[in-house]
Structure formats: structure tokens, C-alpha cells
Amino acid sequence: MTKTVRIDHAKAAGAFLQKADHVAFHDKRLWDLRSKRDAQAHGIPEWEALRNLASGIKEHTLSNLADYIAQFADQAGKNGVVVHFAADAEEHNAIVYKLMSERGMTTLVKSKSMLTDECYMRDYLEPRGITVMETDLGERIQQLDHQDPSHMVVPAVHKLRADVAELFGKTIGTDPKNSDIHYLAESQRMNTRPYFVREKTAGMTGCNFAVAETGTVVVCTNEGNADLSANVPPLHIASIGIEKLIPTIADLGVFVRMLSRSALGSPITQYTSHFRAPRPGTEMHFILVDNGRSERLALEDFWYSLKCIRCGACMNTCPVYRRSGGLSYGGTYSGPIGAIINPTYDLKRYSSLPFASTLNGSCTNVCPTKVNIHEQIYKWRAVIAERHEVPFVKQEVLKMAGRLLASPTLYRATVASLGGALKRLPNFVLYNPLNIWGRGRDLPEAPAETFHEWYKKNRKPAK
Amino acid sequence: MTTRDAFLAKIRAAQPAARPRPELPIFPSPEGDLQTRFIAALTTMGGTTAHAHSLAEVKEMIAARFGADAVVASAVPGLEGTRVLTPDTAPASLQDVDVGVVRGRFGVAETGSAWFSEDEYVVNSIGYLVQHLVVLLDPAQLVDGLQQVYRRPDFESARYAVLVTGPSATADIEGVLIRGAQGVRSLTVVWIQ
């Protein structure tokens, strides 16, 4: 990864938009998840109370985070778990490698973890002779295609069945012409399951919630692959972002109720697994990872993003995300949450992401922990403008818009002429390089008269 | 490598002013009897249910559905499988088992889940490595919802605890639901006292 490269979200989204059938399916599939989420949320009268509780518990925990981490680590230690502390991705990856190489282990079989993606752990381990097997179907597809996950919950949602058939044909030897989804999923199962029972293999999971009271790591999957990764090999490593802490087991009664309902619209994931202590005769290691989180915790406007429980609801509801695809965000995290998390890692690289939003606020409204996502997107724009990270063209357009919006006379004159203009505008105006907003969008129908004209006709000014 | 003290000190220095911890209320339960709600939830998650009066009847049920020569591993005392399970059984050795039989400690009406720990599973991999799972559940052992589940003391003593809700599933390709992703292909809850 080159630090200085600026991700051009609009350009990358443009490439996705070229694939009409992909865009149409992507949009529909994610909106379906949003609709299912709504049905679940509306079925629970206390849903809004749960959101308030989830937000309150997270804010309490994050504002006392050092104490809760200490309690979690102490408790885990008493349970026979070895706890490691990693300041950054490099330390995390080095700890994993050390644990494995010291034991002569050569394969790591794992469930999905956004954190290990964030740490680019596979890129670290594989050149050092460790085979990493992603066992979540979507994550495995992305691994085989050497791509970031394009969604936090459904990593390969931007692909259609024919893409997967072609990829599996090239990589795991299936028939590239057979795009039957049952065949593809079954092929992956047969290809992957032997890895769970291999010799010299360690298991790895991520962590959805880390409970300070008991030192428990909670992992939610639908495939049961976290349970296989943790319950078959003799070594279980769990990678834990420090924002995953919650105080008590009782708090899970809030979060587990909301996670899968928000993510997929199901009442719970098929497997909600609680790892507290190693099986007799085996080892369990927890790696607590900071990797920029404490820096974010110190940012007055932006620490709220640490409340995120990675359900993806904000992505499913976002009109920009649904039509641009997760890969266009150029980082591990995409969608609205990616637009506010990624700039904390590298402001220059991700400076276009906060502009990939209509600021409609839907992301904030569906967020189970009430992260004020759209407000943070707006605040990031201010930070980026202040630090002159806004590309020149966008700066000039915004200056023009600023002048226009600051003058009522100029604004009304422009709007009044716009109705006629919209009808007559040749495409080169819409698609000129200065009009970033026009790309990928259709012109709206212009009303016959402006609101101001209508008001003058129908209302007398107040005396 | 970062020490625990340095790691915690950096976080402590970054923390915003302390926010209060909210009280957790118990919300009222929805209408409807627990078993009906359990079955409705489990059905949406792809699980099925059956009734049995005795363990012998469960055994017949398994033979009828999976064939008389199916490899069966049972973690339920009194119901013998073709494979003996002890806490020392190697987890990987269950990879060729057709049917696993387990008894859930309790069920959750809200979600259609059954609760297990290493005490119920004997060998934890039985819940995932076998092809089909048969879960015995006592209808008297149903709790209302997750808010009640997470107030139980069971999580404090179990090394491993899991809420299992239907079979292993994925919808990662075009949203098409596949049962039997990496874990069990089917899950049947058998009501038995």
C-alpha cells in the first residue's frame, strides 16, 4: 500500500457502474437486507430503547476503556488464557507468527475478522510460510480473488454467481461453466473442511464482543466456522479490537438481540459462541489490538465511531454505497462507516470518502449503537477542507456554490432559469469535468415554477 | 513489543470524560406460549422439530431418517451411538460422523436457539463436524428471550458456551440460502422430557 495514493472513490465507483447487471443486483440485494432489518426492528417494541442502551453502554465502556481492558485481561489470565497486547498491525501479525512458528504450525484456519483484514495479516503470514485458510464463504472468495472485503457482513456481495464460478474454476478446480450456487458452496465446503482437521494447524477467530466481567470472547457466525476453527485445532487465537469491550454478560442481552437483526434481518446468527477458557490440554491466546483506535478515542468529534459493532446496516441503507460497491472505497472498511473510520488511518489517502455521501442521515437512523455517522461525515469534510485535502476541482465548484448560496438574488435568478436550462442542457454540461455530482446521476424533472414564484403568487407577505 | 502498562496508559490518556453506565431493564415479554414462539423462530432459521416419548424412539427416528448404517455419535446418556464419546475423544475424529445427538441445557423462545457447553457436547466439535445434528430439548426448559439468557449464571462456569439456532448456513453468493455451509447440514430439535 502506497501511503500517498489518494483513493478516487468517484472514479472507482464509475468502473462498478459500468457493470449494469452487477449494480442492479447489488442495489436490490442490499436493500432487501435493509427491508428485513426493518421487519425485525419493527417487531420489537423496545427497539429504540435498545439502541439507546447499546449506545449508552458503549459510551460508558469507551470512556472507561483502560479499566475494562485491564479487568478483561486479568479475568482471561485467571481462566488460563494468554493475553497479548499489540499496538499496531505489525505487532499483531508478529505475535500470530511467533505463536505458530514456535509450535511448528504451518496452517492457520480461521473465521472472518475485519481486524485481521485491517492488519493485512495474510500478506504478512503467507510469505513466511504460513497457509491461511479463510473459511467464511464470502471471505474465502475475496481471499482467492486477492481483494478486500467489499462488505463487512457479506464480503463478496458485489460478485454474481458467474464471477464466483470463474474464480473457483481458476483456483479450486471446479467447473468454471457451472454457476449453480449449491454446487459452488458445496465445492467450497469440500475444499475447506479438510483444513480444520489438518496436522500442525492453529485456529483463529475474531471477536464481536469481549466481556470484561468474565474474560469471555463472543463470536457470531452463520456458518459455524468460528466454532470449527476454535474447537478442533489445539491452539485458538482470537484477535480483538479494543473497542469490542463491554462490561458484563448481561449486556449481551442488548447487543446480541440487535446484531443480526441489524445485519441480516434474522433474530440471531445461527451460532453465537462464547469462548472463556481453553479446552483441557489446549491453548487459547487473546491478542488485544489498538492499531489507531486510541488515537481515534482522543478525537473529540470522531471517537463515537468506536461504538460500531460491524453490523453493516449503514452500508445496506446507503444509496451511494449500494450503487458504488465496497471496493470503490479502497480500504478494509467501506460504506458510511468506512467513510468515517478510514480517514483516521490515513487522511490523505481516504480524503474522498466523506464526499461519497448524500448526507441523508439514513445510516445514523439504522445504526444499532446510534453512531452519528452522517454528522461525522460532515465533520470530516470540514477537516479535509481545512487541511486542503479537497481536490482542486471540487474546491472550485464548492467556491462557486458558496457564492451562489450566499446571495439570495443570485440564487433565485439561477434557480428560475434552471427549469428551462435543465431541459435544454446538452450532455457536455452535465458531464463536464467540473460537475462531479452529475456523474452517474440523471437530471431531475424541473418543476414548472420555483417555490419562490409559487409563494409570491399564493401568499401575501406578512405585514 | 508493547507492554501491558504502555498499552493501557495510551488508552487511558485518550479516553473522553467518563459517561455513566445505563441501568439494564427487563422488557416485557411478547404474547404467545414459549414453545410456539420457539418453533416459529427456529423454522425461520432453517431448523425443524419433532416429538419423542423416549430415547428409544429417538433412536428409531434417527435410523428411519439417516439409515440403519449411519455413523452416530451421541453425547446423551442413555442413547448409544455407534461411536463412543469421551472428553478425551480427539475433536477431529468426528469428521466422518453422519449424525450427532446432543441435549441442550435450555432453549430460547425468542430466537429458537438451544444452549450448550462442553458439559452437554462432551466433545465440542460434535456440534459442527458431523453432517447432521439432532438436538434433544425439554419443553419445560425454555426461557423467554436473550435478556433472560444473559442473566443466567451458566456463562460464568462454562469454558465454552454456544447458542445454536438451526443448521450452518450461508447466503454469501447472491443471497441464496445454503444450509450446510461449513458445519451441520441439518438440525432437528426433538421435544422430549
Outline the structure in words.
- The complex is a heterodimer of chains A (463) and B (193).
- By secondary structure, chain A is α/β, with parallel strands linked by helices.
- Chain A has three domains: 118 residues, no CATH class; 248 residues, NagB/RpiA/CoA transferase-like (Rossmann fold), CATH 3.40.50; 56 residues, no CATH class.
- Chain A is 50% helix and 10% strand.
- Chain A has a six-stranded parallel sheet, with helices on both faces. A four-stranded mixed sheet of chain A has the order 8-5-6-9.
- In chain A, a hairpin with a 4-residue loop joins β5 and β6.
- In chain A, α19 crosses α20.
- The termini of chain A are far apart.
- The mean pLDDT of chain A is 91.
- Chain B is of the alpha/beta class and 193 residues long.
- Chain B has one domain: NagB/RpiA/CoA transferase-like (Rossmann fold), CATH 3.40.50.
- Chain B has six helices and eleven strands.
- In chain B, the strands form three sheets. Chain B has a five-stranded parallel sheet, sandwiched between helices. In chain B, strands 7-4-5-8 form a four-stranded mixed sheet. Chain B has a two-stranded antiparallel sheet with strand order 9-10.
- The longest helix of chain B has 12 residues.
- The relative contact order of chain B is 0.19.
- The chains are: A alpha/beta (463), B alpha/beta (193).
- Chains A and B meet through α2, α3, α4, β1 and α5 of A and α1, α5, β8 and β9 of B.
Q: What labels would you give this structure?
A:
heterodimer; A: alpha/beta; Rossmann fold; 3 domains; 4-stranded mixed beta sheet; 10 strands; B: 193 residues; alpha/beta; 5-stranded parallel beta sheet
